[in-house]
Design a protein that fits this description.
Shape: globular
CATH superfamily of the largest domain: Enolpyruvate transferase domain
Number of strands: 24
Radius of gyration: 21 Å
Number of domains: 2
């Protein structure tokens, strides 16, 4: 059981105002770090994610023979292994990072050697069968413990496959593509809902040829990767908390600079627009095929309306659903979430925790197996929040607390360090009290 070690008191705010530049996108940092460590030469990345998860990826790659230097704040230089990893001295510790464990498994399956991937208690509970199935189909030797970590890999020569993912997952897609990168023939991954495409864009940036159709991605192997220099865009999943904070204060004004606006991730902007938030995008640029821009938001005087998140939308917004649910009581018509069963197998059971914490703050909410209904026009009061050791729960309820009456205590607030160590200081910076 997770025991909360740090607590943080969130006092109500009067408004959200100011401009921020957010830390580097976690998803892109994982991929740049991993591919840079696997490529030939030395890659240099600015605004690399400061989260503990991306540090886990770098540490695993260092254990496999890559070298990582941090010449200045927010800059990392990664010298790669040129496509051939070393046998690590011990198990590779992925910490709390499912991205690290699932993606590195694909990288290692075609390599020579024996590899064991371990993680913390929360990661050890998360499902790993979803990567074992396609890799085993390629001929990989992978053993799990009752479908979970530790993941034991005996590297071997693989063959190309054409695979359809049963549950849309960018991590599974990436895992198969990284194995396909090193395997003779064409490996194809098909998905019913298009998941975030950072891996395809990153592979291309590092010089690989990746072909994409409407519902599939193919890679021809074997190919080599070459080092790049790149600035990591600001993380839109981190921005979600600030956008939602601005949304619940009529007349708020917030400017987010250098934000990643990849279309497979920017769905949140569509949902917030449908709720009535006024969003404009300024100076849009293309950096290594990732779109980056400045986002200006202001909340309407009349407050937010209502919206429903279901189907493909729920899959694309899976990380942002906790904070959307947390601000739903402040909308006029509420928010309905369905087809989000995947939330139950994240760092925590996010559906259960969101419902529990909303009720603690005095909200009425109906829980469903695959989502929830949160009616609008509710006033929340301060309460003690159980983060369950989950970064997104800790941050989502810090946002909800800004418009509650009275103070809110977030238990286990250090969970935010997993993805966003600067979260609380930036929230203080834009909250007018």
């Amino acid at each position: 059981m997770h025991t909360a070690t740090e607590e943080r008191l969130i006092r109500p705010a009067k408004n959200i105002y100011g401009s921020l530049r957010l830390p580097g996108d976690k998803s892109i940092s994982h991929r740049y770090g991993m591919l840079g460590a696997f490529a030939e030469g030395t890659s240099r990345f600015t605004n690399f994610s400061t989260g503990a998860d991306c540090a886990s990826t770098l540490a695993c790659m260092e254990a496999l023979g890559a070298s990582v230097a941090r010449p200045e704040d927010g800059v990392i230089e990664v010298t790669g292994v040129g496509g051939k990893v070393n046998q690590p001295a011990g198990p590779l510790d992925c910490g709390n990072s499912g991205s690290t464990m699932r993606m590195i498994s694909g990288l290692l399956a075609p390599q020579q050697g024996e590899f064991t991937l371990i993680g913390d208690a929360s990661l050890t509970r998360r499902p790993m069968k979803r990567i074992q199935t396609p890799l085993a189909e390629m001929g990989a030797k992978i053993t799990l413990t009752e479908g979970h970590a530790p993941v034991m890999i005996t590297g071997s020569k693989l063959h190309a496959i054409d695979y359809t993912t049963p549950v849309p997952s960018a991590q599974v897609k990436t895992c198969v593509l990284l194995a396909g990168l090193q395997t003779e023939g064409t490996t194809t991954v098909r998905e019913s809902v298009r998941t975030r495409d950072h891996s395809e864009l990153a592979l291309r940036a590092f010089g690989a040829r990746v072909d994409r159709s409407v519902d599939s991605v193919s890679i021809n192997g074997p190919q080599t990767l070459s080092a790049i220099q790149a600035a990591v865009p600001g993380d839109i999943s981190s921005a979600a908390f600030f956008l939602c904070a601005a949304a619940i204060f009529p007349g708020s004004q917030l400017l987010l600079d250098g934000l990643g606006l990849n279309p497979t991730r920017a769905t949140l902007l569509d949902v917030l627009t449908s709720l009535g938030l006024q969003i404009s995008v300024l100076n849009l640029e293309d950096k290594h095929a990732e779109l980056v821009g400045t986002v200006q938001v202001t909340s309407p005087a009349a407050g937010l309306g209502s919206t429903s998140v279901t189907g493909a939308l729920a899959a694309q917004l899976i990380d942002e659903l906790p904070v959307l649910a947390a601000i739903a009581p402040y909308t006029r018509g509420g928010i309905r979430i369905r087809d989000a069963k995947e939330l139950r197998v994240k760092e925590s059971d996010r559906i259960a925790l969101v419902v529990k914490n909303l009720r603690a703050m005095g909200a009425e909410v109906t829980e469903h197996e695959d989502g929830m209904d949160v009616p609008g026009n509710q006033q929340l009061h301060g309460a003690t929040i159980d983060s369950g050791g989950d970064h997104r729960i800790a941050m989502a309820f810090s946002v909800a607390a800004l418009r509650a009456s009275g103070d809110t205590l977030i238990q286990g607030s250090e969970a935010a360090n997993i993805s966003f160590p600067e979260f609380f200081s930036l929230l203080d910076f834009v909250a007018e009290r």
